[in-house]
Amino acid sequence: MRRLASTAALLAALCFALLADGAAAAGAGLTITAAEMTTDAAGMVIATGSVRIADGTYIAEGARVVLDTRRRVAVFTPGVARGPQGVLRGRRLTVHYVTTRLTEVKAEGDASIELQSTRIAAGEITLRLADERVTAAGRVRMEAPPDIRAEGTRLQFQRRTGLLMLAGQVRVQPPQGVAAG
């Protein structure tokens, strides 16, 4: 592995790799910043120290990331993603991207997402950015203030329609009591 002379040099190399297909719109694209970055001949980039990948709408941040520029995948350990849908956190955050934008973010290990007033926690949570779909698996717990709590093993939430589906051994606790099934 070789260390580049400066972050600016690596950023220029990454921008070239990310924009290589020529599909970037004028003024659009990804910005990647970090305190230190190293790269190897296989196209793997390891960035440490306040790592940030942003597309103008969504931001993924963490202390360390391994970026595979050929597969267009960045893995933060740990990581946080912020955007209009909310805040997604996990011990491991896998970010998929195309030339100009982030497309999907998956949090694993103590994963949680805050969607306005609703909070979802699970072993794994995936946020598809284009269609605003949230899926969760593992021990899924949801809180929707002021007083609704639900648990299950799988969850799917479509933000645009507001439809939420909870599956597995489901337990819902509305203000009037408990429903299980």
Q: Main sheet, how many strands, which sense, barrel?
A: 6 strands, antiparallel, barrel
Q: Please state the average pLDDT score.
A: 83
Helix content: under 10%
Strand line-up of the largest beta sheet: 5-6-9-10-8-7
Write down the secondary-structure element order: EHEEEEEEEEEEEEEEE
Low-confidence stretches: 1-27
Rough outline = elongated
- First-residue to last-residue Cα separation: 54 Å
How many individual helices? Answer: 1
Number of strands: 16
* Rounded radius of gyration (Å): 18 Å
> Structural class of the helix and strand makeup?
mainly beta
Residue fraction in strands: over 45%
Classify the oligomer. single chain
What are the main properties of this structure?
single chain, 181 residues, mainly beta, 6-stranded antiparallel barrel, 1 helix, elongated, disordered N terminus
